[in-house]
Structures are given as structure tokens and as C-alpha cells.
């Protein structure tokens, strides 16, 4: 088949690669001048088969309104600003009832584990040399009660995911540079989670995809979709406009693009959540993290990526204002000094990046047929897009090729929101 993949982030690149492996003729259309200029640019790099990334557990106690307020605070740390955001938060809280949580978490863990397997397979088959480290510590402050952790621990256990509860002293054996005064009383250790450089992987895989015949067209905006039996796209590139038909089109655009029909966009509860990542070079490796550390209370993560440290946090719901919140950025600097003082070399330059995650209210991405003939989606991966990219791409390719999929797809199909 002649297939267009819209979007050259990590998801679009792996999808194009998998489709090309299946023998399709693939063209990737990207509005930016280069690959991975969106959410895949400088993310935290955590690949978490445990599916324990932040923003997945709302508050379960209390009456409806109290639950909503506390859940929203956990998710966004900034109050909702519009009726649309409030409506989405209500849906998010409702879809994350304890019963749904266990079911969705299980499906997420299956997809995340499958993705980690695919990542290892692709990196091995293509001999990709990647910046990588193993294990993640989730730091617990005194305020975290075993009750709050119970559902997470139970679903991890049910999936056979190793997760050890450690004392502060035991945690320091994995991360010896954690400062003596760092505010934590214990930690959860997830040896199966890892940090791997997402952008580096995507850029190297792009070359492999090109070797398989995938064409990449940058500075090309998809302006319109004509959804017929043979779908076509109106493209704008370097001031020129053209319409091109394909046998199939896959949108890997992170969020739902405007070119999709309004009925589809309104039906799917997708919201943008913005976050920040500081990248600094390591000054003294002995003072730096070995792998991944996250303070569960604040949501701030501090990860090692080769010769750099990435510190990430913040979660702003809604439209992109394009402005950085100084208070959140300062919180990241403070966290790095609090947990790993002396680790960073600030004078050599610090990159402050604000990126956008597109989150579906039930916490799972949209993978598969969109409901429009010849049009599929592989987007809405939220805070776990890098974790889920490789498995999502293989599932998508199998669905397009009408093959059996390695996992059940009921929790993933975009049509799950059809009324
Ligand atoms: C602060 C932060 C930290 C994160 N940390 C982690 C982490 O540790 N682990 C993890 O698993 N995930 C993490 N994520 C999530 C992960 O980065 C994303 O889910 C993932 O990168 C999404 O990849 P993507 O290819 O779907 O989207 P993107 O990388 O955003 O790519 C989409 C592409 O589509 C293009 N596009 C859109 N519309 C059009 C159009 N009309 N025409 C042409 N091109 C178009 C865009 O230009 C863009 O290049 C993090 C995200 C953020 C923001």
C-alpha cells in the first residue's frame, strides 16, 4: 500500500519504520524543518514497562467534588481555567475510578512491556548505539501512606513487574549520590524501568527507515484531509500547494489535528498538558544520578542521560500560551540542588524546554482505525509516549495490514469513544 504518515516525532518514525518493514511504500509528512521538534525533542527518556509515569492516579476518597478538586491538583498543579478543562477533568476522574484504574493500568502495562520488548528488538536489529541506564527510584516522603500506594503495587504484582519497597539507606545503594539531606524516607525501586535517549533513537531509526525506502518530507503542512474511499491530503510546502492521494493515512501528530472532522475531535476527550525539562551537563559524575529518580510528591524527575542530567516537572493544562512559568523552572533548579548538589555544570549551558503531552482522559493512547475510511491514528500517548512508541507502532502496522495483533486492542482503538 502507498501510506502517508503525518508527523515525524518518535511515534511517526517508528510507525513508518514498521510499515516499511511490512513492505508498504511510506512517505512521512512533517510540518517542522526536522524530525523530533515536538514532544519527542527533549523528554525525560524514561521507558517504564511498569507504566508508573505520573498523572495516572486520581484521588479515590471523598465525595464527588472533593475527589475532583484533589485529583485535578495531582494532575495539573494549576487550577482549571475553562469550562472545557473542567469537563475534561470530570471525565478523567470518572474514567479513573478504582475499577477502571486496575483494568486500564493492566492494559497500559501490557502495552508498555510489549513496547520495551520491541525497543530492545529494534535497537538490536538495527545496532543502534543509545545513551541508556537501568532502573528507576520513586522517592517517598513521609506523607505518602501505604494505602495510597496499594493499588499501584497490586497491579504491578499482578503483571509480574518487580517493584521493591526500600528504606532510604537501601535506596542510596542504587543512587549513592543522593544528598544526605534530600527529603525522602524510603523509595520504590523499579529495576525494569530504564532511561534511554528518545530523540537519539528516533533520529537513528529515521536513517534505518530511509534505507527501507521511507521518504521524509519536511516543511510540509497537512492542511486538509479529504476522507473518501481513497483518502487524499492537501499539502502546503515551501509556498506550493498540492493534493496527494494515498491508500492509507496514519496521523502520528501527538494531538488530534484540526484537519480531522470536528465530530471526531469533539468525541475524543483529549487534553494538552505542558511540562518542563532542564538539560544540564554533568560536572562531577560522582555527584550525579546513575539512572532515574522521581520525587513522587512533587512529580519532579531527575534522570541521567549520557553526559547530561534532565530534570523535569510541571503540568499545565490547556492551550499553549507559549510562555514559560518561572516558578516551575526555578523549582526544577532547586530540586537538582536539593537531591544532587554539585552534579551540574551550569556555566556550560542549560537548556530549558517546554513540551506538550496530549492526554486521553482514560489514560490510554488512540491506536488504530479512526472510523474514517483509510485513516488511522497513533497518537494521544500522554506522559508515556516514548515508553509506548515501539509497541504502538507495531500494533498499528498489524492493524493496517489486517494481521493478528500481539495484544488485545479494545482499550486502544479510537472508536472506543464512539457513542
Ligand atoms: C516534559 C515532558 C516529559 C516527558 N517525559 C517522558 C518520559 O520520560 N517517558 C515517556 O515515555 N514519555 C515522556 N513524555 C511523552 C513523550 O515525549 C511524548 O508522548 C512523545 O514524544 C510523543 O511523540 P509523538 O511522535 O506522538 O509526538 P511529537 O513528538 O509531538 O510529534 C508529532 C509531530 O507531528 C507534527 N505535526 C502535527 N501536525 C501536523 C500537520 N498538520 N502537518 C504536518 N506535521 C504535523 C509535529 O510537528 C510533530 O513533529 C514526555 C513529554 C513531555 C512534554
Short description:
The chain has helices spanning 10-21, 64-76, 83-95, 98-125, 146-158, 168-174, 198-211, 262-267, 326-339, 385-400, and strands at 2-6, 25-29, 46-47, 132-140, 164-167, 186-196, 215-217, 220-226, 232-237, 240-245, 248-251, 270-282, 292-295, 301-305, 308-317, 344-360, 366-369, 375-379.
Q: Could you characterize the architecture of this molecule?
A:
The structure is a single chain. The longest helix is centred in the N-terminal third of the chain and has 28 residues, at 98-125. The strands form 3 sheets. Strands 3, 4, 5, 6, 12, 13, 14, 15 and 16 form a 9-stranded mixed beta sheet that branches. Strands 7-2-1-11-18-17 form a 6-stranded mixed beta sheet, with helices on one face. It folds into 2 domains: 2-57 and 97-417, FAD/NAD(P)-binding domain; 64-95, no CATH class. By secondary structure, it is α/β, with parallel strands linked by helices. It contains 10 helices and 18 strands. The model has no long low-confidence stretch (mean pLDDT 91). Helix 1 (10-21) runs parallel beside helix 10 (385-400). Flavin-adenine dinucleotide is lined by residues 6-12, 29-32, 36-40, 43-46, 221-222, 252-254, 257, 275, 277, 312, 355-357, 379, 381, 383-387. Residues 2-399 form the FAD dependent oxidoreductase domain.
Amino acid at each position: 500500500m502507498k501510506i502517508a504518515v503525518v508527523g515525524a516525532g518518535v511515534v511517526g518514525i517508528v510507525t513508518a519504520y514498521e510499515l516499511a518493514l511490512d513492505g508498504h511504500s511510506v512517505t512521512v509528512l512533517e510540518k517542522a524543518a526536522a524530525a523530533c521538534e515536538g514532544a519527542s525533542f527533549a523528554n525525560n527518556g524514561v521507558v517504564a514497562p511498569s507504566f508508573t509515569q505520573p498523572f495516572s492516579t486520581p484521588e479515590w476518597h471523598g465525595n464527588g467534588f472533593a475527589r475532583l478538586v484533589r485529583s485535578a491538583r495531582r494532575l495539573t498543579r494549576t487550577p482549571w481555567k475553562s469550562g472545557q478543562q473542567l469537563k475534561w477533568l470530570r471525565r478523567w476522574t470518572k474514567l479513573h475510578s478504582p475499577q477502571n484504574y486496575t483494568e486500564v493500568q493492566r492494559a497500559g502495562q501490557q502495552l508498555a512491556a510489549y513496547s520495551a520488548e520491541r525497543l530492545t528488538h529494534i535497537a538490536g536489529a538495527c545496532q543502534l548505539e543509545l545513551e541508556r541506564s537501568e532502573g528507576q527510584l520513586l522517592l517517598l516522603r513521609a506523607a505518602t501512606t501505604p494505602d495510597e500506594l496499594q493499588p499501584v503495587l497490586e497491579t504491578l504484582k499482578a503483571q509480574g513487574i518487580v517493584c521493591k519497597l526500600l528504606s532510604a539507606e537501601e535506596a542510596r545503594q542504587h543512587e549513592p549520590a543522593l544528598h544526605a539531606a534530600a527529603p525522602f524516607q524510603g523509595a520504590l525501586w523499579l529495576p525494569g524501568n530504564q532511561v534511554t535517549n528518545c530523540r537519539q533513537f528516533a533520529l537513528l531509526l529515521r536513517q534505518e527507515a530511509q534505507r527501507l525506502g521511507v521518504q521524509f518530507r519536511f516543511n510540509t503542512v497537512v492542511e486538509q484531509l479529504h476522507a473518501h474511499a481513497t483518502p487524499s491530503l492537501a499539502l502546503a510546502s515551501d509556498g506550493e500547494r498540492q493534493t496527494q492521494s494515498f491508500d492509507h493515512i496514519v496521523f502520528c501528530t501527538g494531538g488530534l489535528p484540526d484537519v480531522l472532522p470536528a465530530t471526531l475531535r469533539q468525541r475524543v476527550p483529549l487534553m494538552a498538558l505542558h511540562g518542563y525539562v532542564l538539560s544540564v551537563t554533568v560536572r562531577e559524575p560522582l555527584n550525579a544520578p546513575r539512572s532515574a529518580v522521581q520525587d513522587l510528591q512533587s512529580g519532579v524527575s531527575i534522570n541521567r542521560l549520557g553526559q547530561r542530567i534532565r530534570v523535569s516537572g510541571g503540568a499545565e493544562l490547556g492551550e499553549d500560551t507559549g510562555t514559560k512559568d518561572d516558578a516551575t523552572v526555578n523549582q526544577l533548579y532547586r530540586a537538582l540542588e536539593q537531591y544532587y548538589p554539585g552534579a551540574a555544570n551550569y556555566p556550560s549551558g542549560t537548556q530549558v524546554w517546554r513540551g506538550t503531552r496530549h492526554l486521553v482522559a482514560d489514560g490510554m493512547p488512540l491506536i488504530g482505525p479512526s472510523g474514517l475510511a483509510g485513516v488511522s491514528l497513533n497518537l494521544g500517548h500522554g506522559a508515556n509516549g516514548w515508553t509506548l512508541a515501539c509497541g504502538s507502532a507495531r500494533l498499528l502496522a498489524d492493524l493496517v495490514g489486517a494481521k493478528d495483533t500481539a495484544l488485545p486492542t479494545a482499550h486502544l482503538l479510537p472508536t472506543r469513544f464512539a457513542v
